[in-house]
Amino acid sequence: MLPTTIFALSSGALPAGVAVVRISGLEALPALRLLTRKELPAPRQAALRTIVGQDGYVLDQALVLVFPGPQSFTGEDCVELQLHGSRAVVAAVMKELAAIDGLRAAEAGEFSRRAFENGRIDLVEAEGLSELIAAETEMQRRLAVEQSFGGQSALYEGWAKRLTHARAMIEADLDFSDEEDVPGSVADSVSGDLIVLQQELRRHVEAARAGEIIRDGYKVAIVGRPNAGKSSLLNALANRDVAIVTDVAGTTRDVLQVDLDMDGYLVRLFDTAGLRESSDVVEQEGIRRAHDVIGKADLVLLLEEIDSEPEHTVIPNNKDLLRVGSKLDLHGPSPAYDLCISVRDEDGLEPLREAIRLRVRKIWSGSIAPTRQRQLELLLDASNSVSEALKAGQPELRAENLRTAAVALGRITGAVDVEQLLDVIFSQFCIGK
């Protein structure tokens, strides 16, 4: 059974200046002829065409482009209609397309899935496209570009080739050890490269934490006792009123979040309920959630009013902690804190921002980093298999471990055994991509 031709709105929310409708499949080119009642324009050359419905009414004038397969995004015949971006125009054209035999509306990620199935992209590049579309900061864009344009895939393919070469050398040593033209102890000669490859894999796995932070944000928890000024600090750093600020202790009872773009990095600030003993059930829940945020935070800002009783909040030892003294305008500076601030006068706010920026800049050097848990788990499998190969005494076991490592790398890009993953991966895409 031949694949159905699909169509979807591939541009942003309507209304807009231009709306791009994409069609892909065997019936894409005949559908364009039917809509325009003219011959097709030259491939990859825009042409102005009148879009006409089956009843003869003009629907719109549009720029149309034709991308014959296999040299298209999906690897199939593709058409793009650049329409005027009104809801009525797009709805009319989509209704007309749905009425054509062999055409149906695309599902989420279906264009990208067809590109994968037709060998135009691999799974890492597909995931990179998803990240690129969702990117909100410069660093998210840079990391997604490495994935979507093949840089990350090339790294994994290079490792897989080295593993295959090492395995071939070991098996040649086993099968042809009595032949004069096969060097003695070939298996030993590949150990050096395997050690280097293992080190590269480990460094790459360690970079996963950086990839996670670039993708999901650097989490900063603002914690402390009631009335320490946590909500005021959140509002000041966000430059807008996010949290309600009053003199009543316990005003903040839930976790409030605001996302900031700091030097191209996504920074997520969390304002939490004041930490204290409380018999109020709602406040107790807020305090529990505050401790959850502390556990997940990359940086904890422990806020205390200067000259107040020392804070006894227990912060895990593995957490990056900044002790911040608040209400500098009332009390003056104190050496008991890493930083002293006044939200009212804005004193100390820029040094605090810079302290956060310095920490974020150290996270990612610009190198390729995995961003998905799926990728990380398979990289760990590959790394562990290479370790086992290096420890294996018998050449047969070493070769088998190298085969397992190569298979794990192949599963990352989709070269082998990934059918069960496809629905999960491509369902996360937007319609039209």
Automatic annotation (TrEMBL):
EC number: 3.6.-.-
Every TrmE-type G domain range: 217-361
One BP annotation, GO: tRNA wobble uridine modification
Cross-referenced SUPFAM superfamilies: P-loop containing nucleoside triphosphate hydrolases, TrmE connector domain
Membrane-spanning segments: none
Assigned keywords, A-Z: Cytoplasm, GTP-binding, Hydrolase, Magnesium, Metal-binding, Nucleotide-binding, Potassium, tRNA processing
Residues given in the record as GTP binding sites: 227-232, 246-252, 271-274
EC category: hydrolase
Residues where (6S)-5-formyl-5,6,7,8-tetrahydrofolate binds: R22, E80, R120, K433
GO molecular function: GTP binding; GTPase activity; metal ion binding
Cofactor(s) listed: K(+)
Binding-site list for Mg(2+): S231, T252
Pfam families (UniProt xref): MMR_HSR1, MnmE_helical, TrmE_N
Cross-referenced InterPro entries: AAA+_ATPase, G_TrmE, GTP-bd, GTP-bd_TrmE_N, GTPase_MnmE, MnmE_dom2, MnmE_helical, P-loop_NTPase
Entry note: cofactor: Binds 1 potassium ion per subunit.
UniProt-annotated binding residues for K(+): N227, T246, V248, T251
Subcellular location: Cytoplasm
Keyword field contains Nucleotide-binding: yes
Purpose of the protein: Exhibits a very high intrinsic GTPase hydrolysis rate. Involved in the addition of a carboxymethylaminomethyl (cmnm) group at the wobble position (U34) of certain tRNAs, forming tRNA-cmnm(5)s(2)U34.
Family to which this protein belongs: Belongs to the TRAFAC class TrmE-Era-EngA-EngB-Septin-like GTPase superfamily. TrmE GTPase family.
Name of the featured protein: tRNA modification GTPase MnmE
Origin species: Pseudorhizobium pelagicum
Lineage: Bacteria, Pseudomonadati, Pseudomonadota, Alphaproteobacteria, Hyphomicrobiales
